[in-house]
Amino acid sequence: MKKIRYAPASRVWITGTIVAAGIVFSPFAFPENAVQEPVNLAFTLADTIDRTKAQNSNEEKKRAAESKAAFADAYKVFMHPRCMNCHPSGDAPLQGDKSTIHTMNVQRGPDGKGLFAMKCKNCHQDANLEGEHLPPGIETWHLPTAQRPMVFQGKTPRQLAMGFKDSAFTGFKDIHRLVEHVETDHLVLHSFTYGTRPPLSHKDFVARVKEWIDKGAELPDK
Amino acid sequence: MIKLTVNGKSYELDLPSDMPVLWVIRDRLGLTGTKYGCGVAQCGACTVHMDGEAIRSCVTPVSRAAGKSIVTIEGLEPSLSKPLQEAWTEIDVPQCGYCQSGQIMAAAILIRDQPQPTDNDIDNAMAGNICRCCTYLRIRQAIHLASRLKSSNAMLSAI
Ligand code: FES
Ligand code: FES
Question: What molecular function terms (GO) are annotated for this protein (chain B) (predicted)?
Fold first, then answer.
């Protein structure tokens, strides 16, 4: 027993209080099922933890499914000719709604701006030209560079998503720069204003890319 | 008023900003060596240099040329024009000749940037210049010759 270091008068008073409290609260402190109750409590707790875990894993599954669904929508835009034509698997840009190889044997060139007398900006002006069959344009018309060609063409959703999560593929410091690219890059914006439009509006497209990333940037199954 | 330099000479011209450079050089400045072929950036007949790049002048609005330097076939610098002219004459490249100033302006950029071009380089550089008379094989030969002449001229002038 620990020694109580109180003055004798206080000791009497405190002891009395404890005894009285013991009498008043004894039915609660020592109920009939004094052993059963903690066991039940432990079961209840374990149950709650299990349920929370299950709930969490359900939420986790739901979140992952939503992330994948968001990517599936965005993928349709990435693979639309307006986007994919500048992300070809070869070294020539593609053109038109059928994504045919650019006429005139145009080549990417090391900086993505063409080669020799065949530079992109030699024909593509700072703005679209009025009239049939005239080249579209903005100030920064170009392809990704030869060193980092960022190929979309031929990629499955899973392969493309893996690419976006790899800074060697994108050249972006982190995946959030991808959002910045799809949200603000002038060439990306141009794709939503010229010719046959991608299947989502630019706003919805950006929202779906953000959702994919915010919900864990899950890799599609295929 | 738009200020630009053409073949080293400065001009200040009152022009609509969307007038194509081709109109300016042919109709306003009387430099008719550059030709009008298609008007839609498809044939290369109108090729001139703007700040050292081979632009298609039929689709380039003069507003884009403001403050820049344009070079036409008439003003091509001798280190490029001399070997090209000699090679073109030697191989007897032109048939009707209509596409040839555009061909030469495109070839000038190629031999400037790639002193010893391969056949593949030539294809990459020249495929945008159409020749209705199909002088392509002679153009290829002439570019190889011009690049050799250019390097020997450069060696001679270094002695
Ligand atoms: S006239 Fe300019 S490309 Fe044909
Ligand atoms: S020589 Fe006739 S079009 Fe080329």
Answer: 2 iron, 2 sulfur cluster binding; metal ion binding; oxidoreductase activity
